[in-house]
Automatic annotation (TrEMBL):
Residue ranges of every copy of the Cyclic nucleotide-binding domain listed in the record: 32-116
InterPro entries hit by this protein: cNMP-bd_dom, cNMP-bd_dom_sf, RmlC-like_jellyroll
Recorded superkingdom: Bacteria
Protein name: Cyclic nucleotide-binding domain-containing protein
């Protein structure tokens, strides 16, 4: 299933020669995941990250009271993992769940580190991805600290207009840090003003 086309898809805007593509391809694994399946479970070792070819996944933390706190969604062309565990070599604090049947490309951190040595231009590619992700996280933290639930929801649908068709209401509410009832009330209020 994996081909040079997938390498080109994953590493858009990065000029790779045939040899580099073959080296990268040798480190990637194609997997299919069913809705409801956990790729990563809390308190386990994490060795891999995943690139979404299609489908939808989320990372969430389950607290001691059994409440879910969604940190990230990932749809086509997004990367996902428990990066806290992946980069600190500690047990996972997050779950990565498939919330819509998905096709993924998996790469281990060990293989990625090897690729950085064999195809150095991947260093810049991943550094730029990481910088963008860091900026998104900081904006989200600021939003959670300074904006109302309604403002956070409006930001969510503005920044991620396609997500709502992939994600259940309770997942969106969990991501926004509100109840599903509050989300329904906000949507109703918005629709009345439209």
């Amino acid at each position: 299933m994996l081909s040079n086309t997938i390498v080109t898809t994953i590493f858009k805007n990065l000029e790779l020669n045939k040899t580099e593509k073959e080296i990268i391809l040798s480190k990637l694994n194609y997997i299919q995941v069913k809705k409801g399946q956990l790729l990563i479970a809390q308190n386990h070792d994490v060795k891999d990250q995943f690139f979404v070819l299609n489908g939808c996944l989320r990372t969430y933390h389950l607290d001691d009271l059994g409440k879910e706190h969604t940190l990230q969604f990932a749809i086509k062309d997004w990367w996902i993992s428990d990066y806290i565990a992946l980069w600190t070599s500690k047990k996972s604090v997050l779950n990565v769940e498939c919330i819509q049947d998905a096709e993924l490309v998996k790469i281990s951190q060990e293989d990625l580190e090897q690729l950085f040595l064999e195809v150095p231009k991947l260093n810049l590619f991943f550094r730029q991805k990481l910088q963008k992700a860091f900026v998104r996280q900081e904006k989200r933290i600021l939003s959670n600290l300074t904006k109302s639930a309604k403002e956070r929801y409006l930001d969510f649908i503005r920044v991620y207009p396609d997500f709502e068709k992939h994600i259940k209401n309770f997942h969106i509410a969990s991501y926004l840090g509100i109840t599903t009832e509050s989300l329904s009330r906000i949507r109703k209020e918005i629709s009345l003003k439209a």
